[in-house]
């Protein structure tokens, strides 16, 4: 039976490494902004949510229609459970809180935010040494590189790479206690096109087929059969 | 060592600052609590110093004090807090399996027990049901009713 376990992939480890570096006050070498990009389904949001659960860092869920005040109130609420009505008051509280404890702000779907809001985040980073990770799809990189004063302040850039064969093997081993043959791993990787979601769906179908037939090991040809059915 | 008698003053100051959205000056606190001028007011300074040291209040630039609501620990226990945080960040359309994956808590029954309590407390509601990943059985899918209230009441 499948175990609901979060698989620490290479992408997730790199993401955690970037956040740890930004959070560490001794690593303060200039601005502490980072950009994390990648197409949908690579696990960016899940990695950020998991980090927010495990640490004190702050994850801001997507909301494309945001005004600067809305974003600041959201950040302030996450930090202190308070919401002020004025930008200045919010900034004062954010500054004080960041002085007390340095926490990474992870802004999801930052590519959908107006550039003026991203600029405000840059200013916040400069004023309060408040580490910020912008998470978004590939368009985010272009948006941030629009202005030199923004792009030059991005300390770390990370691209969520397509799901690797090692990640697929690890996932099947950890979650389903199943070892996939190298040819099956290649097949699953080709079917997924680097995205996690098709792999999860495929794993569900494989497990259901095995449960129905009372099998404990994946028989030869089963993965191909399921992939063909899904693709047809 | 001589111990100070318990007067309940710290509790009164805490309640006052918690209730006020704005920061208060020490004199303002004394006046709000009807403490007369003189040596009695010196005790307030010690109380505020203690609160500030443990991070319960914050001093503003103007020398006023504001209650730090983040200091509150609404839910005791690290494991429970991890589950609560996982629910908070999942927002909507999550099941116990999703929370288990995100929180890393191995005991699914423990997660289900917490989620049952959250449903009874009106913090989350069931929005649908779906087939379990393994194909045997159905799992319930939930959503947070009021995310801000959830944060205020439960997330430490």
Describe what you observe in this structure.
The complex is a heterodimer of chains A (232) and B (156). Chain A is of the alpha/beta class and 232 residues long. Chain A contains 11 helices and 5 strands, in the order H-E-H-E-H-H-E-H-E-H-H-E-H-H-H-H. Chain A has helices spanning 10-23, 44-54, 68-80, 87-100, 115-128, 139-144, 148-151, 165-176, 182-192, 196-213, 222-231; strands at residues 33-37, 58-60, 105-107, 132-136, 154-159. Chain A is elongated, with a radius of gyration of 21 Å. In chain B, the strands form 2 sheets. Chain B has a 3-stranded antiparallel beta sheet. Chain B has a two-stranded antiparallel sheet with strand order 1-2. The model of chain B has no long low-confidence stretch (mean pLDDT 85). Chain B is of the alpha+beta class. Chain B folds into 2 domains: 9-71, Winged helix-like DNA-binding domain superfamily/Winged helix DNA-binding domain (Arc Repressor Mutant, subunit A), CATH 1.10.10; 78-153, Winged helix-like DNA-binding domain superfamily/Winged helix DNA-binding domain (Arc Repressor Mutant, subunit A, Orthogonal Bundle), CATH 1.10.10.10. In chain B, helix 2 (26-32) packs across helix 3 (40-53) and helix 5 crosses helix 6 (108-120). Chain B has helices at residues 9-19, 26-32, 40-53, 78-90, 96-103, 108-120, 147-153, and strands spanning 57-59, 65-67, 92-94, 124-131, 138-144. In chain B, a hairpin with a 5-residue loop joins strand 1 and strand 2. The relative contact order of chain B is 0.11.
């Amino acid at each position: 039976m499948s175990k609901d376990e979060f698989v620490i992939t290479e992408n997730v480890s790199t993401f955690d490494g970037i956040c740890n570096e930004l959070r560490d006050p001794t690593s303060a070498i200039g601005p502490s902004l980072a950009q994390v990009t990648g197409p949908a389904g690579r696990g960016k949001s899940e990695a950020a949510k998991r980090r927010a659960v495990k640490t004190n860092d702050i994850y801001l869920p997507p909301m494309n229609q945001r005004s600067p005040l809305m974003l600041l109130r959201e950040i302030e609420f996450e930090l202190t459970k308070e919401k002020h009505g004025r930008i200045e008051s919010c900034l004062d509280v954010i500054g004080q809180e960041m002085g007390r404890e340095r926490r990474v702000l992870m802004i999801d779907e930052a590519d959908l935010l107006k550039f003026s809001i991203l600029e405000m985040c840059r200013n916040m980073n400069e004023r309060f040494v408040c580490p910020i990770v912008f998470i978004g799809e590939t368009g985010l990189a272009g948006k941030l590189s629009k202005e030199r004063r923004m792009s030059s302040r991005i300390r770390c850039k990370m691209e969520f790479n397509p799901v690797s064969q090692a990640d697929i093997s690890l996932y099947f081993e950890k979650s389903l206690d199943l070892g996939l043959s190298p040819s099956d791993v290649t097949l699953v990787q080709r079917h997924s096109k680097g995205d996690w979601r098709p792999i999860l769906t495929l794993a569900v179908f494989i497990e259901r087929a095995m449960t129905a037939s009372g099998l404990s090991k994946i028989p030869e040809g089963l993965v191909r059969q399921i992939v063909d059915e899904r693709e047809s | 060592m001589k111990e100070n008698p318990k007067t309940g003053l710290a509790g009164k100051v805490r309640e006052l600052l918690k209730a006020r959205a704005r920061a208060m000056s020490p004199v303002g606190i004394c006046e709000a609590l009807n403490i007369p001028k003189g040596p009695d007011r010196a005790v307030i300074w010690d109380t505020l110093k203690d609160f500030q040291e443990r991070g319960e209040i914050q001093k503003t630039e103007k020398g006023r004090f504001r209650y730090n609501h983040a200091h509150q620990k609404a839910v005791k226990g690290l494991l429970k807090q991890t589950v609560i945080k996982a629910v908070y960040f999942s927002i909507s359309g999550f099941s116990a399996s999703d929370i288990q994956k995100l929180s890393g808590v191995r005991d699914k029954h423990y997660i289900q027990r917490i989620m049952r309590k959250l449903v009874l407390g009106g913090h989350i509601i069931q929005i649908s049901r779906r087939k379990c990943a393994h194909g045997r059985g159905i799992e319930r899918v939930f959503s947070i009713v009021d995310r801000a209230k959830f944060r205020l009441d439960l997330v430490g």
